[in-house]
Amino acid sequence: QVQLVESGGGLVQAGDSLRLSCVDSGGGFSWYYMAWFRQAPGTEREFLAGIRVSGESTFYSDSVKGRFTISRDFTKSTLYLQMNSLKAEDTAVYYCAADRGPGLSSSTAGYRYWGQGTQVTVSS
User: Fold this and answer.
1) Mean pLDDT across the stretch 63-87?
2) Whose CA is closest to 24, among 86, 94, 79, 84?
3) What angle (nearest 5°) sits at the alpha carbon of residue 121, between those of residues 118 and 124?
């Protein structure tokens, strides 16, 4: 069973940093390709970053490339999103997503398993 739980969101000021975590307690972490999405009120869910099963390959949207870093720790079954130089427009609910690999998708349709989301609010 895939069970994803995000944490690490909060209220910060523009220019600050946050690190989001997504823990899988289902026992199959090593078999998933994973991604981070976000959704602001009134918008579609937006792809941010993806990482392959091996952790070797990553992909970022233009809106966060150079500021955000996706990584995974196999010993802790945890996916991370390090967010630096946060902007007000980064305010959204951030979601962890996964599916069994190999593979990598930038579409919500490419992921069957989702966390509950964690709120990130950036004040300017």
Assistant:
1) 97
2) 79
3) 165
